[in-house]
Amino acid sequence: MASNRKRVALIGKIGSGKTTLMQRLSQEELIYAKTQMISYTDHFIDTPGEFIELPFFARQAINVTMDAGLVILVNSCIDPQNSVSPNFVHTYNIPSIGVVTKIDREDGNIKRSRNLLVYAGIHPKHIYEVSAYTGEGIEELQKVIHHYMDPHRNKK
Ligand SMILES: Nc1nc2c(ncn2[C@@H]2O[C@H](COP(=O)(O)OP(=O)(O)OP(=O)(O)O)[C@@H](O)[C@H]2O)c(=O)[nH]1
Ligand SMILES: [Mg+2]
């Protein structure tokens, strides 16, 4: 079976901004499209938010992403509700980082997002704040992704 080691997996609630973030990181135009099924690109595995929100799908979310090179757990700062179980990311045997999205929104609560990501098992030092709309924080996140992914991607 082909390995996903060269891909970054995006996990997070419905509407948390995974696909938009992926588009921004891939320097694509930002076009809204609800993710209906797992989508694989050269560099990413994008999952539908249902994978983390609905217990029926939760195992599938882990199954399809457990051999990625890196897991990014995404949390939108305008979403007050948590749906990720405590220490969720410790299920993985691969590195994980947290990303707070939509920080351009004045009504957002970044601290709440950080707390929810820590609750999910992300180390506070490994949480990054971004806006896919304005580009804030994207360059720093790109560097972090390179740090984790270059060893895999440079392998033949
Ligand atoms: N203000 C703001 N809105 C954003 C940002 N990123 C995404 N959005 C909006 O949030 C909504 C959901 O974004 P998606 O990227 O589709 O979210 P998703 O996590 O892929 O959602 P699912 O595919 O349903 O799991 C869309 O209307 C986006 O335009 C951002 O940085 N700032
Ligand atoms: Mg999506």
From TrEMBL:
Keyword Membrane: no
A GO BP annotation: biogenic amine metabolic process
Any single Pfam family the record assigns to this protein: PduV-EutP
Single Gene Ontology MF annotation: ATP binding
Source organism of this protein record: Acetobacterium paludosum
Cited Gene3D superfamilies: P-loop containing nucleotide triphosphate hydrolases (3.40.50.300)
Similarity comment text for this entry: Belongs to the EutP/PduV family.
Keywords assigned by UniProt, alphabetized: Nucleotide-binding
Protein name, UniProt field: Ethanolamine utilization protein EutP
